[in-house]
Known about the structure:
CATH 3.20.10.10; alpha+beta; 2 domains; binds 4'-deoxy-4'-aminopyridoxal-5'-phosphate
Amino acid sequence: MTRFAHVNGRYVRQAAASVHVEDRGFQFADGVYEVCAVRDGWLVDEGPHIDRLERSLSELRIGMPVARSALGVIMRELVSRNRVADGLVYIQVTRGQARRDHGFPNPPVPPTLVVTARSLDRASFDRRAASGVKVLLTPEIRWARCDIKSVSLLPNVLAKQDAREAGCFEAWFVAPDGTITEGASSNAWLVDAAGRLRTRANSSRILPGITRAEIMSLCRQHGLTCDETPFTEEDIRTAREAFVTAATYGAMPVVQVGDHRIGDGTPGPIARRIRDLYWTTRES
Length: 284
Ligand code: PMP
């Protein structure tokens, strides 16, 4: 099946889609991105994802390439053209194309917009969620503005590769103070020895996950208190449960972190409940 992408106002065959060699995304990773899940053909949490895109762009002083409503049309068009039932829409916006020079182009150039959509194997995520996944611990080596969803992902790429090579699904970054910040591409959660549900508070140290925010709001609605104090490897050692959250798969139970088996080594009841609750409420 021919796949389609959207590049700067045009729908093109993905195999032939391209940006300029002097695009600042390619030269400097001077751009941001968003990933929005597609479930049964519907965009999941679209509004919050576009809000975060606008925020990331404004932090880097890049303008929105098209109006929000137009972006919504493009996303839907690609879901339909690529016949995505379950999968994701990827949006990337860069500062645009200009002669290579570190400072911003002056006068400014139009931002580059690339949007793609693809299917994901939902059943394979469900299978992984049923058995639970492993997480590798790795030193935090990222920059001080992890709240911006920048395409500059080298530390995340290296951490994820280390995780894969160790047979793990995800890597958790351990900050110099011993606390876990987040995953290479997910937010990190724990049910600690006292039964408290914990995930680190939003700050410039982590990406403010949309799935994280939606799950926190579901927890509030269902009387589950969430404690936002950071957790350490010591907390992991005695934790009852752990899980990670991201748009593509919702909540994913974790059964091992580093050398520590979590609970009895099977997905815990709170992680499973949150996973079900999240997807059930996205379907309505
Ligand atoms: N942190 C990082 C570093 C991520 O890359 C992601 C996923 N893109 C997340 C957290 C989770 O964010 P979201 O729930 O919005 O997908």
